[in-house]
Design a protein that fits this description.
single chain, mainly alpha, Catalytic domain of cyclic nucleotide phosphodiesterase 4b2b, 12 helices, globular
């Protein structure tokens, strides 16, 4: 956690045990307590426990998560990414983001993909069938969760607005944020959702899992696994433009985080994503048959 790294070319996956969601949460906590009271993180940890129950099939009324791409680890990748963005923002600016808004942002992030979870009476297919409507369903779950736990409904409105930013087709300018801090955190969540998955060590091999979800969810425009891999190159360029234009280059705060906490004056997310895309380009040039074996990471 925030230790000095002497390696010249450190990979982002080496900083935290990314196979352990508990280890990821501890890193999120470490980032949080640099600017906020540790006692304020207790609520986040309680929400995290409910998130675990939800995805493990132990939350009342819901089945276990059965989407292999949008799983618990994807959510934790996103949570870690937004915690780093918040930390970087607070490092770079004289005025830190308010605790109340940060708290809502972390809760919104934890449940931003809850819409993939099926209810107990839903016996058809998997949660992937909700791909095109999972954001709406996530917002419904968050509203019910806020009501159930006695959270402020004004905070729910902020959480709803932030989660809306994770929609690929969402026009950020059309989201009715209540203030600039909420807008900033919404942009952070939208950015973290993209960076978290695309910088993941297993991103490329997990694209085959994403195709299965897209197929069940009837997402148009993808004819095969290999076609999805081909379109990933364009997706990468599209999301770079989205982050720059709609999210106002909010990813710039990553470098401040890594410089302060790890003495690495680079954006390791940007490097990891570019490395993935460069490798994918090489795979697509070489083959259209045994691409799966080329994408599989050695453990």
């Amino acid at each position: 956690m925030g230790v000095h790294i002497n390696k010249k070319k450190i990979q982002i996956s080496e900083l935290v045990d990314m196979k352990s969601i508990d280890a990821i949460l501890e890193e999120v906590k470490y980032n949080f307590i640099q600017f906020y009271p540790v006692t304020a993180f207790y609520e986040i940890r309680n929400v995290y426990r409910d998130f675990n129950d939800l995805f493990d099939g132990k939350y009342p009324g819901y089945k276990k998560c059965n989407t292999d791409y949008h799983d618990k680890l994807h959510t934790m990748d996103t949570l870690l990414a937004i915690s780093r963005l918040i930390d970087g923002y607070n490092i770079k600016n004289r005025r830190k983001l308010p605790l109340k808004k940060v708290r809502v942002a972390l809760i919104a992030t934890i449940f931003h993909d809850s819409g993939f979870i099926q209810t107990l009476n839903d016996s058809k297919g998997t949660g992937a069938k909700y791909t095109l409507e999972h954001i709406r369903r996530s917002i419904v779950f968050i509203r019910e969760y806020f009501q159930k736990t006695g959270m402020n409904m004004q905070d729910f409105t902020a959480a709803r607005n932030m989660v809306s930013c994770t929609g690929v087709a969402t026009e950020i300018d059309e989201v009715e944020f209540t203030d600039d801090d909420e807008r900033t955190l919404g942009r952070m969540l939208g950015t973290a959702d993209l960076l978290g998955q695309m910088a993941s060590r297993k991103y490329l091999e997990n694209l085959t899992l994403l195709y299965r979800e897209f197929r069940e969810g009837k997402v148009p425009g993808y004819e095969s696994e290999f076609h999805l891999l081909q379109r990933t190159l364009k997706f990468y360029e599209d999301i770079k433009r989205k982050i720059k234009k709609e999210f106002k280059s909010i990813d710039r705060y990553m470098q401040a985080h890594f410089k302060k906490r790890y003495h690495i004056n680079e954006d390791l997310y940007k490097i990891a994503m570019q490395n993935h895309i460069d490798y994918l380009k090489d795979v697509l040039k070489r083959t259209s048959r045994n691409y799966r074996s080329m994408l599989r990471r050695k453990q």
